[in-house]
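A favour, since you know our structure tokens better than I do. It will help me judge whether the discrete encoding reads sensibly. The space below this message is yours for that.
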Amino acid sequence: MRIPIAALLLLAASAVPTLAADWPQWRGPEGNGVSHETNLPLVWNDQRGITWKADLPEWGDSTPAIWGNAIFLTSQHDENLLVLKLDKATGHIVWTQTVGAGTVKRAPIKGTSPTERKEQKFHNLQNMATPSPVTNGQVVVVHYGNGDLAAYDFDGKQLWHHNLQADYGGYTIWWGHANSPVIYGNSVISVCMQDSLADVSKPLVESYLVAHDLRTGEQLWKTSRMTGAKAEECDAYTTPVFTEVDGQTQMIIMGGNQVDAYDPATGKQLWFLPRIVGGRTVTGPVVADGLVFVTQGKSGPLLAVKFGGKGELPRQSIVWHHEEGTPDSSTPVAWENHLFAISDHGIARCYDLHSGREEWSERLKGDYKASPVAADGKVYFLNTHGQCTVVSAAAHFDNLAENQLDDDTIASPAISDGRIYLRGHKALYCIGRDF
């Protein structure tokens, strides 16, 4: 262990008000990776700072959804797709339900033939339990890479079940469907962005958004999202975020060479910025202070976009951009007037939120897939092998701590009630302050 000296939007997701201590979805209550809690743990390892450790049926990359004393996780054990509820105080598994089953097909990381493109394959770093669960305090919704979408009450009773592949057609995304659902009011919204196969076959394979009633599973609306992207550029593994503009809630989506916004109540498109040409998109959108930050896929330029209005946005909406060392997997996080990002190979950067000026750049240890979180003036960067580097959320680089667990860590951290929850391949770790 080395310790160097050195727009609030209440998630429109909720039918019940979200408590400050809850982490109800991937990237937290506001969908932006920010917690407003203070006095969080700074130092831990396998011998100290672990409040509890819960062994999990292996494995998955989903982030925990936390509400009150309940923690929800998804996992894949052999071919079984599981949802688990854990007791937050002890880590005890309260119940486990099998939602469905699926066989993960792998493919080498190489060019994909037209025949291979007609059926999704999975990257070695993920399986069908990559989408994160989402809850509003009464219902928890889970989703898997085989298309299973299901809702449960907190006692483990299944309320409804759909399979999106069965309902809307087989997935053609190249490296395994991984989009997490979001809740808006009494609906749950799912996004599918995938290879249209426009250059190899007809009819085109559709990318779409679809909303289901949270309690009954009835389809409320469905919107086609065809951006004109080709082949792998169509693919996106991102999760929508909500913001409010002139009193209207907007749902912002990035992928398929386009960032756009929709009315989450109807699925109607509100505005769009096309021709953000890159590759498949893993890094999700981040909204902060009237800007949306997106990456042009496959480590393309990081863009700051001023949004608003209706229809197609002008190119002048791109306020600033950076091309060097941008993230391919990890979604950035904003804190006050700063944006923090990390490349897959560990180059962390801090930008001025409004000007785009690079304030610092430092190499951290390891490779990175998890998205950083920010809280209490600190940013937590978690690498793929259990090391979490904590730095000051400031315009100067200050390495506060480097913490190591003996596990592989792809899932993004969660924060609740003064503790940090890290999901590894083997276990879920509850990190508390070691007084």
Q: What stands out?
A: The domain at 34-431 is CATH 2.130.10.10 (Methylamine Dehydrogenase; Chain H).
